[in-house]
Design goal:
Layout: E1 2-6, H1 12-22, E2 27-30, H2 41-46, E3 54-57, E4 60-63, H3 65-75, H4 90-116, H5 125-145, H6 158-170, H7 180-190, H8 193-202
The structure holds glutathione.
């Protein structure tokens, strides 16, 4: 039995997409960040910080998207979504899994300031400026390094799922047209049939109410 604990458009989408690439049969348990369901004792028993994703996999319970992605790639090596341990490219693949979380954490902090903070609390403008600049710098660095069709010269891998998910969400905070190579890369990713199947199971997102969140005025 495989069950993904998932919030639409959250990092658990990485796992959803990866499971579609691998071709697994799985169930999805849906949550919302807004309704308190992720603070229930049942959910906290699965996820210590009350976060998604959590994956129940054949009796094991895994949390942290990067770890789940690596575990799935190693459990199903025939899917060919990682360079084998010890092979050329493995270090770069692991770097990219973690780099994707550098981007993920910047997005999370922008979300906290601009999406989840409730009045009378106000976002910190200097902090939002800094986060926005750091997000743009992280994307610009990948734009400069993008030489082929995917992050790894060997071709599509789970690193593209980890990073591509964050690139998709960055559109809420930055103008993605500033990164033409990443935009072309993103078009390749979203054209993948497994991405389309994952989107069909993602569910209705209730995180963002707007299409774009600019840096607020001082
Ligand atoms: N590093 C963790 C972060 C997980 C995480 O923060 N997930 C968010 C959704 S993208 C969440 O569950 N937030 C709920 C909360 O903060 O209460 C991972 O990659 O799995």
């Amino acid at each position: 039995m495989i069950r993904l604990h998932h919030v639409p458009l959250a990092r658990s989408f990485r796992v959803l997409w990866l499971m579609e690439e691998i071709g697994l049969d799985y169930e999805v348990a849906y949550y919302s960040i807004r309704d308190g369901s992720m603070r229930s004792p049942e959910f906290l028993a699965l996820s210590p910080a009350g976060r998604v994703p959590v994956l129940e996999h054949e009796g094991a319970v895994w949390f942290e998207s990067g770890a789940i992605v690596q575990m799935l790639c190693e459990t199903y090596p025939e899917a060919g979504l990682m360079p084998a341990p010890g092979s050329a490219g493995r270090a770069h693949w692991l770097e990219m899994l973690s780099y994707a979380e550098t981007v993920g954490c910047l997005l999370e902090n922008l979300n906290l300031n601009l999406v989840f903070l409730r009045p009378p609390a106000k976002p910190s403008v200097p902090v939002v400026k800094l986060l926005n600049a750091r997000l743009r710098a992280a994307l610009a660095a990948m734009e400069a390094r993008m030489a082929g069709d995917y992050l790894l010269p060997s071709g599509f891998s789970a690193a593209d799922i980890m990073f591509g998910y964050g690139f998709e969400l960055a559109r809420y905070y930055v103008d993605l047209d500033a990164y033409p190579r990443l935009m072309a890369y993103w078009e390749r990713l979203r054209a993948r049939p497994a991405y389309g199947r994952a989107k069909a199971r993602d569910g209705e997102q209730d995180i963002y109410a707007r299409d774009f969140y600019p840096v607020p005025e001082e």
